[in-house]
Amino acid sequence: MTFQTPLILSGPLRKPRQMLAEQSYGGHNSIHDDAMAEKLGFQAGPIEGPTHFSQFDPLLVQIWGPAWFERGCISSHFKNMVVEGEEVRAFVETPQGEATSVRAWAEKADGTPVLEATASLGPDHGQTLLEARRAKLTPPGPLVILQDLEVGMTGAKDEQVRMEADQHMGDLYPFSLNQKLDGITENSPWYAEASSSPWGRAIIPTEMVSVLAEYTNREAGFPSKGPAIGLFADLEIRMIDGPLFVGEDYVLRRDVAAIAESKRTESYWVRTRIFDKSGENQVAEVMLNHAIVKNSFENYDELRAAREA
Fold first, then answer.
1. DSSP readout, the chain?
2. What top-level class would CATH report for the domain 8-308?
3. Other CB atoms within 10 A of residue 44 CB
4. Per-domain boundaries in the chain
5. Whole-angstrom distance, CA of residue 166 vs CA of residue 169
6. pTM of the full predicted structure?
C-alpha cells in the first residue's frame, strides 16, 4: 500500500426524530419530556442515544456487508444530547488491512461531538470502547439511589420477549417497529420485507435491539430508589449469531456488570444477554450504562451527606 492514511466514510446530515416524548417509568415522565428536561437544566427533551446507531449501519454494511448484522458490535459513549431539529452526521474510519475494529463517531452540523464509538466485526472484536471505559472505573462513594445494588446481581428470572412489526413496545418505548420505520433516519427493506432480506426474514434494526433488550427490564428487579430520572450514558450492542428477527421469541438474562458515579449521576452497567427461544444459544448482547441524575432524586444532597458522615 502506497499510503497509510486513514480514510473516512461519512453519511449525510440527518434530523433524527424524537419518539420518546411520551415515555414514562415509575409513574412519572422521563428526561425525554421537554418540561422534565428543562427542569433538570437541559435544553429540551433529548433524542434517545441509540437512534443515532441507524446512521452507522449503511457505512458498516459498506465495509463488512451483511455480516455486520450477524457479528457486528457498536460500542458507544454518548457525549452531547441532540434535540429534534438538530442535524447529525455519522463517520467511520475504514479498516486498514485485515483489521476488524474501527473508530466511529457522530457530530452535529456545527461539529459538536454527539458520540464516540468503536465498531468491530466478531468473533475477535479486540477491546471495545466500553470495555476500555469500564476498565478505568473507580469505586463510587456511598451511593444513595443505588445503595442496595451490587455488582454481580442477576435478574430475578429469565425474561421472554419478541418484537412484532405492529407491537407497541410499552411505556418505555411508546411506539411500534413500524412506527419507528416511518421515521428512522436510514431505512432498509431488510427491516420489513422477508423477500428482500439476505436471511429470508425481516430483521430488527440495530437501534431497536436496545428497545427489545429494555422491553421487560423491570422484571429483573434490580433495586434502585426513586422517583429519579435516568438517561443512557454508554451503550454497546454486540451481535454474536445474528441478526435478530422480527416476530421471533427470545430469552433475556441480565446481570450488573459495574457500578459507578460522576459529579452529576449515579450509574449502573447492566449486561443483557439475548438467547434464542430455547435459552441455550446466545445470539446477542447489550451493555447499557444507566446514569441516574442525582438532583432528580428528592433530598439527594442531604441523604448523601448523612451517608458520608
1. ----PPPEEE---B-PPP--TT-EETTEE-TTSHHHHHHTT-SSPPPPGGGGGGGTHHHHHHHHTTHHHHHEEEEEEE-S---TT--EEEEEEPPPTT--EEEEEEEETTS-EEEEEEEEESS---S-HHHHHHHT-----S-STTTT--TT-B-SS-EEE---TT----SSS-S-HHHHHHH-SS--GGGT-TTTSTTSS-B--HHHHHHHHHTTGGGG-----SS--EEEEEEEEEESS---BTT--EEEEEEEEEEEE-SSEEEEEEEEEEEETTSSSEEEEEEEEEEEEGGGSTTHHHHHHHHH-
2. alpha beta
3. 19
4. 8-308
5. 9
6. 0.92
The confidence band for 229, taking pLDDT boundaries of 50, 70 and 90, is confident
Q: What nine digits make up the cell of 216?
A: 421487560
Percent of the chain with pLDDT over 70: 92
Q: How many residues does the chain have?
A: 309
Tell me, rounded to whole angstroms, the distance of Cα 100 from its chain centroid. Answer: 21
